[in-house]
Amino acid sequence: MRPLTDEETKTFFEKLSKYIGENVKLLIDRPDGMYCFRVHRSRIFYISEENLKMACNIPREDLLSFGTCFGKFSKNQQFKLHITALDYLAPYAKHKIWLKPNAEQQFLYGHNVIKTGLTRISENTLKYQGIIICSVNDLPLGFGVAAKSAEETRNADPLTIIAYHQADIGQYIRDEEHLC
Question: What is the pTM of this model?
Answer without folding.
Answer: 0.84
